[in-house]
Automatic annotation (TrEMBL):
Organism ancestry: Bacteria, Pseudomonadati, Pseudomonadota, Gammaproteobacteria, Moraxellales
Gene3D superfamilies on file: alpha/beta hydrolase (3.40.50.1820)
Name listed for the protein in its UniProt record: Alpha/beta hydrolase fold
InterPro entries referenced in this protein's UniProt entry, alphabetically: AB_hydrolase_1, AB_hydrolase_fold, Carboxylesterase_BioH
Chain ranges of the AB hydrolase-1 domain: 37-305
Entry coiled-coil feature ranges: none
E.C. designation(s): 3.8.1.5
Metal-binding is among the record's keywords: no
Organism from which the protein derives: Psychrobacter aquaticus CMS 56
Keywords, comma-separated and alphabetical: Hydrolase
A GO term, aspect molecular function: haloalkane dehalogenase activity
One of the Pfam families matching this protein, by short name: Abhydrolase_1
């Protein structure tokens, strides 16, 4: 029996809502479901639609809004206009949240965010407060990027300098080619270096053997394929790395003002953000508790997909 997908009820179909931002840009937001509005923010390099396997079982109860950050996913052709991409993303998220609240006639909505998306939420809380967010799930993200005398829980923890040196190297190597239209026009050795560093970052993000195997398969480019590899987001990724390396992202000063209920979901084997330091964030928040997945790395949905789904469902059902 053939099923005509277009004949399914609208809330079973993935829609695209184009939200007009302050600079006139139309930001694509993937929307699916029927019920209470919910927003989920994706990670660096991710496509917002990668959340679909986790939310499809819930679309009869919730309507999910999945913004695509400029330069990634369905927004890969939209350029940043500010060097501080985290705060520009926070401004964009504010516009999307206001649009949702206005069109759905709600005062606030639950938000879940992972990795870079969660860093954007720390910036959002700094700039716009918490009145439009009813509950928040922070997924394996510290509000501090650079290690400091009083904070050693920044990106990559004790390996930070080693990893940042690698990032500085690859960013410096790509700067002379920043205006090239196509990744295929880069020198082969530079293409190999860029993709090798991306694979290293991805492998550090996971802990489970099956996850590492998946990452190896998805990220490895054999020489003959790399020659013609069309890496459409490489320039944007390099620009984001520049900002990560240069800007002192530290949002600890606003933590005590985030009084809404917060679930801090932590990968117990995270190599990107030390779980011990992440637990300090839980203690600093006025109304938070943590859930630690002991076998998960930073990429919680990939390492522990079933546990992630259950935690997300319980968060939305207000059971955690």
């Amino acid at each position: 029996m053939k099923i005509n997908l277009l004949s399914l009820p609208r809330h079973y179909q993935l829609q695209t809502l184009n939200v007009a931002l302050a600079d006139g840009t139309l930001l694509p937001v993937s929307v699916i479901g029927n019920g209470q509005p919910v927003m989920i923010l994706h990670a660096y390099g991710m496509d917002a639609r990668e959340f679909l396997p986790f939310i499809l079982p819930l679309i009869d109860k919730y309507e999910f809004y999945l913004p695509h950050f400029r330069g990634f996913g369905a927004a890969k052709d939209i350029k940043l206009t500010q060097f501080d991409f985290v705060r520009q993303y926070a401004d964009d998220v504010n516009t999307v949240i206001e649009k949702i609240c206005m069109t759905r006639h709600v005062e606030s909505l639950p938000v879940a965010a992972i990795s870079m998306g969660a860093l954007v939420m720390w910036a959002y809380f700094e700039r716009f407060g918490t009145s439009r967010v009813s509950r928040y799930m922070n997924i394996d993200q510290s509000p501090v990027i650079h290690n400091q005398v009083d904070w050693q829980g920044g990106l990559f923890g004790k390996q930070q300098q080693e990893m940042f040196d690698i990032f500085h190297e690859v960013v410096d190597m790509t700067l002379p080619y920043a205006k090239l239209d196509s990744f295929t026009h880069l020198p082969f050795a530079l293409k190999r270096r860029v993709t090798d560093v991306e694979r290293l970052f991805s492998l550090l993000s996971v802990n489970r053997p099956r996850s590492k195997a998946i990452v190896q398969i998805l990220t490895h480019q054999k020489d003959h394929k790399l020659v013609f590899y069309d890496h459409s987001t490489w320039q944007h990724k390099m620009r984001c790395l520049q900002a990560y390396l240069a800007l002192p992202y530290d949002f600890r000063t606003i933590i005590e003002d985030v009084t809404i209920p917060v679930v801090n979901l932590i990968g117990g084997r995270s190599k990107l953000y030390d779980p011990i330091w992440q637990q300090k964030i839980t203690q600093m928040l006025p109304n938070a508790h943590e859930i630690v997945l002991p076998r998960s790395g930073h990429a919680v949905p990939l390492d522990e997909p079933i546990r992630f789904y259950k935690v997300l469902k319980d968060f939305l059902d207000n059971k955690v």
